[in-house]
Amino acid sequence: MDKTINRRDFLKIAAAGTAAIAGAQIIQSAEASSGGEKGPHQWAMVIDQSKCIGCGHCTLACQAHNDISPEISWNEVLPAGEVDNNPVYLARPCMQCENAPCVEVCMVGASYYRPDGIVMMDYDKCIGCRYCEVACPYQARSFNWSTFDGDNPAVPEWGQPEVDRRPRGVPEKCSFCYQRIDRGMAVGLIPGVDDDASPACTVACPTNARIFGDLNDPESEVSKIVRSQPTVRLRDELGTAPRVYYVLATPDDFAETTS
Amino acid sequence: MFSRIERLLIAIVFALLAAGITLMAVQADDGNLPLTEGELSCATCHAEFQTSWMTGPHAQATEDPAFVEAWNEQGNPSACLSCHVTGYDPETGEWEADGITCQACHGEIPADHPANPMPVDRSPVLCGKCHGDTRFGWQEWELSSHYKKGMECTVCHDPHSASIKQVMSPNGADPVYGDASDLCVNCHNDHSASFPHTTHSEKGVSCVDCHISDLETDERTAHTVPSHAFSASIKSCNTCHAEQMHQPGVVAYPDAPVEGTHISIEEQNIELASVMPEPDSVSPVGFAGLAALIGLAVGMVLAPWLEKFYKSTVEEKNNG
To answer: Taking a contact as any Cβ pair under 8 Å apart, which residues of chain B between 57 and 116 contact chain A?
Structure first.
């Protein structure tokens, strides 16, 4: 009787074993979740809330250049309260997190990190389980419930489509206009400096509230702002390490208009 | 029965045939077509831009009947052509294409174009090359807050259709005003909350009715545009409220039709002239009083000379 394992002991051993495996997996996934292989460029965006007037031109340009159905949006501009009675807006693209929950939960590897930090979607691999949509703390993903086969009302006034339409049944999201970055860099343009290599929203913004650039380049506009000004990242406490930085509006920013 | 070698030969022939056809098909479908002049037009890939451009004034710049008539009347001056055709050469008097075409703004197509984007200057400087003359209201535009804040023409204007952007709400809501004012409230959304509750809004007046003067003038002369200063002036008020001026509290025409907002400048001036208050007639006593005052002044000024003259006359008599 002494050598046989009773039920309680078995459960203890099983629990310890499971914990050990789970721990190893967590360590493993933590190593894997550091954004993958890092390339020479790390794209980032700064959104200056003191300049954003909530016009939504970024959303329209996004819709045209990425051929997005009017039913969904990759880029929302949300009212975000007031500073000294002046309305303030929160423009929300995909945060392109360094530790992206959407990539972590994707079981088929359809969401992945590009070496330049952009969180990309392989729409052919995607099985439409929508885990990524649930996992995203920023609600940056939206699901294609139906095939978008009509006219895009934002075309051609706000731009021309540069990518294929996504099929029905996959979630889609902002890609920092990777197609503009890649095509622009292929001919020697600098994303963030040359309009043709920068995300459509940054080009369309009438107040230049969006600044795009390379965090690895200390002379880029985004690097300078992140270095010199107080910025915040949304839900930083979750450890997602977003690549979208916000310059918050202060009462000083409205001193000129209120007086 | 074929021998093994014969079978192999037949197989090789079929294989070569299949490979050859496939190679031809693939080459014909090569996605990376080089753009050579004449073979492919811009519209091959940019049909949407082409369609919107065709309907707009840029495409019609040379064929516009109003232009053709005025140009012929003035003896076909070459100065007009720098902005009414594409690629005008003053030395030969020839031009590359009618209308303001893609190349007029984008320049020459880069040799590796699908890879290399078409160049374009997005600043108002490019538009200003033709639309910068004072006749186009550039000075007013420079006074506007829009210009001072560094806004580009393309924020409101679609450069391809060369007209105001068809307004779309970013969140898909129906346009509120159905005119260019919907474009205003995209950015001036602080007003969009309060303005719909005003009497102006209820009567159908929108932003542009007051803030863009001369908007609805049909017979606008060539080369003039509605004021781009975007400031509402007393003239804007007078368009509807001319009769109420200086009569606070009196509503002249409470049931006046809203169509009254869209009247031409000529009509406006006539209307303004007709409501100029007639001066009250002055009574004869008033005229007499005024004459008396003038007489008094004249008398006071001339008094010394009169006295001198009187004295000299009297002395002459006395002496004589």
So the answer is: 112, 115-116
Query: Alpha-carbon distance B124 to B130, whole Å?
Result: 10
CA B158 to chain centre: 12
Interface contact flag, A157 B52, Cβ < 8 Å? yes
Phi, psi angle pair for A45, to nearest 5°? -130, 140
Angle at which helix B265-274 crosses helix B234-241, to 10 degrees, equals 70
Distance CA B295, CA B234 (A): 42
Report pLDDT digits (tens) over B19-49: 777 777 665 554 444 444 445 688 888 888 8
pLDDT digits (tens, 9 = 90+) for A4-36: 567 677 667 766 666 666 655 555 554 445 557
* Cα–Cα distance for residue pair B272/B250, rounded to 1 Å: 18
B176 Cα to chain A: minimum distance (Å): 15
Q: Which two tokens stand for residue B281?
A: 């007639």
Alpha helix ranges (H) inside chain B? 4-28, 47-54, 65-73, 81-84, 102-106, 124-131, 138-143, 145-148, 181-187, 189-194, 199-202, 207-211, 234-241, 265-274, 284-319
DSSP string of A180-199? HHHHHHHTT--BTTBGGGS-
**HSE of A55 in the Cβ direction (CA atoms, 13 Å)?**
24
Tell which residue, B241, B166, B233, B139, has the closest CA to residue B200.
B241
**pLDDT tens readout for residues A219-240:** 999 999 999 999 999 999 999 9
CB atoms within 10 A of CB A220: 23
- Please name which of A178, A149, A146, A226 lies closest in space to residue A65, comparing C-alpha atoms: A178
* Cβ <8 Å between A55 and B151: no
pLDDT digits (tens, 9 = 90+) for B139-184: 888 888 888 888 888 888 998 988 888 766 655 566 777 777 888 8
B105-115: average pLDDT: 85
SS3 content of chain A, % helix, strand, coil (to 5): 30, 15, 50
Q: Contact A243/A45 with Cβ under 8 angstroms?
A: yes
CA terminus-to-terminus distance, chain A: 89
Q: Give the helix ranges, DSSP H, for chain A.
A: 7-32, 57-65, 101-105, 131-135, 178-186, 200-204, 221-228, 255-258
Token pair in block for residue A144: 């294609």
Closest CA of chain A from B29, distance in Å: 18
CB within 8 A of A148, min separation 6: which ones? A67, A68, A69, A71, A165, A166
Q: Is B3 helix (H, G, I), strand (E, B) or coil?
A: coil
Q: pLDDT for B196-246, tens place per residue? A: 888 888 888 888 888 887 665 556 667 777 888 888 877 788 878 877 776
CA separation for the pair B59, B54 (Å, rounded): 5
Instruction: Give ipTM to 2 decimals.
Output: 0.74
A93 neighbourhood in chain B, CB within 8 Å: none
Show residues of chain B in contact with A184, CB under 8 Å: 117
In angstroms, how far is the first alpha carbon of chain B from the final one? 171
Q: Using the beta-carbon criterion (under 8 Å), do A57 and B152 form an inter-chain contact?
A: no
- Tokens 């005052």 correspond to what residue? B293
